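Field: sequence (string)
Field: structure_tokens (string)

Example rows 1 and 2, in order.
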Amino acid sequence: MPPKIFKLIFFSVMTLTVLSLAVTVCLLFSFPNPSEEAKRLIETCSTTWKLGFGAILGLIGGKTFL
């Protein structure tokens, strides 16, 4: 994979991961007693940043072996 494409993919994944982590933290502090919709949104954002973190580790690990 050319370095430009790798950087683009890496920074895109990192941006989405940080954004979903920030939304999760903001929602957790904004709603002390969240509704069912807010709970689902928090869970979705929580899952998203965890998956993004795994993707970042996979990209870094895959890059070192190429």
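Row 2 begins here:
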Amino acid sequence: MIKQIVAIIALSIAVILTMSYAQQAIQLLLNLHEWISQALTDVFSGGHTGSLIRGLIALLSVPVLIGSVPAVAYWVLKRHWFPYFMEVIWVVWLIQAGALIIMYKAATV
């Protein structure tokens, strides 16, 4: 219990100290999502179904691309599968989805 309290205090301090870098990272994540979404605009129609498919592919491709970077580096070094590949994808997806939801809410208000 004490270890968890110390860990959450240390992580909170780290977040406070690196807030500007975290903002830049989230902005880059959103820019990458927007770039992929715009690139897919030429492929899919402007209708509801095309927009849904384009959004789905953009939402899923960013975490897979980001998760592939450490996985490929691990493969080059160790020559076997990266053990936390799906966990990295889930963390990036949760951060991206949260940021997109916040941006969507800010755009509609």
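free_text_note (row 2): The radius of gyration is 17 Å.
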